[in-house]
Design brief:
By secondary structure, the chain is an all-alpha fold. It is built from 3 helices and no strands.
Length: 68
């Protein structure tokens, strides 16, 4: 049961981080930075990578943590 709760929490945290990361990529400053340098800011990249990682781990815990 603990793995399912942790998996669900990580899935929610991952979704929130991805939301903020995707929202940050639409900011005018981010568009200018990406146009000039070809990269997003470190903070935006952190949100995107951490959100994806937390979501994947959360899904794995939900899928593999179920005991029947």
């Amino acid at each position: 049961m603990d793995k399912r709760i942790l998996g669900l929490a990580l899935l929610v945290i991952g979704a929130v981080l991805l939301y903020f990361g995707l929202h940050a990529t639409d900011a005018p400053v981010e568009h200018a930075r990406e146009t000039l340098t070809g990269n997003y800011s470190d903070r935006t990249m952190f949100y995107l990578i951490a959100g994806a990682a937390a979501g994947i781990v959360g899904l794995a815990l939900l899928a593999l943590g179920v005991k029947r």
